[in-house]
Amino acid sequence: MPRGHGRGFGMGPGWWHGRFRGCGYRITIPRQEILKVLNQTEEHLSAEEIYLRVHKVYPSVGLTTVYRTLEVLADMGLVFRLEFGDGKARYELVEGPKGKLHHHHLVCTDCGRVIDYTDFISEEKELLDKTEKALSSRHNFKILNHQIHFYGLCNKCK
C-alpha cells in the first residue's frame, strides 16, 4: 500500500505512539506533524521541505525544531536519513503500521529523481543476509540495517 493511504494518522493515536513511550520521548505536536507529512508522501523530503509543509498546518514550528525532531526520529529508528549525493539529507519513514516499508533506491545523477523499488528485494535480501552474516563474523560487527542506492540516468535523462 502506498504511503499516505489509511496508514494510522486518522482520528486515533498513530501507530508510533508506543515507540515514543518505549524510548522515553514525549509525543509533541511538531513530532506528530512531521510524521504525518512523511506518512502522506512518497517523496524523499529534505528538512526544509518538511518544514514548509508542517509550517502550513502548525505555523509556530521553527526550522530548528524540525531539524532536531528529525534527528530524534532517526535515533529512535522511525525515519531513515538518506544521502543521495546532492549535499542534502532526505528523510522517509522506516515502517508503517503494517510493517516494514523495505525498498531500495534508483537515483538519477542528472535530474536528481529518486525512484523507490521493491523488485528483486527477496533475491537481494538473500544475498545481503549472507553478506551481512559474513561481515558480522569477520569484523565482530553487529549490522543493524543497510541502504542500497543505484546511481545512473532515469528514462527522461538518458
Provide a brief overview of the structure.
The chain is of the alpha+beta class and 158 residues long. Helix content is 39%, strand content 18%.
Radius of gyration: 17 Å
CATH level 3 topology of the largest domain: Arc Repressor Mutant, subunit A
- Top-tier CATH class of the largest domain: Mainly Alpha
State the CATH superfamily name of the largest domain: Winged helix-like DNA-binding domain superfamily/Winged helix DNA-binding domain
Proportion of residues in helical segments: 25-40%
Largest sheet, in brief, is: 3 strands, antiparallel
Backbone shape: globular
First-last Cα distance: 30 Å
This entry's quaternary arrangement is single chain
Share of β-strand residues: 15-25%
Give the helix/strand class: alpha+beta
**Unreliable segments (pLDDT under 50, ≥5 consecutive)?**
1-13
| Quantity of strands, as a count | 8
Mind telling me which CATH architecture of the largest domain this is?
A: Orthogonal Bundle
Can you characterise this structure?
The protein has 5 helices and 8 strands. The protein folds into 2 domains: 15-99, Arc Repressor Mutant, subunit A (Orthogonal Bundle), CATH 1.10.10.10; 102-158, Dna Ligase, domain 1, CATH 3.30.1490. The chain has 158 residues and is α+β, with helices and mostly antiparallel strands. It is globular and about 45 Å long. Helix 2 (29-39) packs across helix 3 (47-57) and helix 3 (47-57) crosses helix 4 (63-76). Residues 1-13 have low confidence and may be disordered. The protein has a 3-stranded antiparallel β-sheet with strand order 1-3-2. A 3-stranded mixed β-sheet has the order 7-6-8, with no helix packed on it. Strands 4-5 form a two-stranded antiparallel sheet.
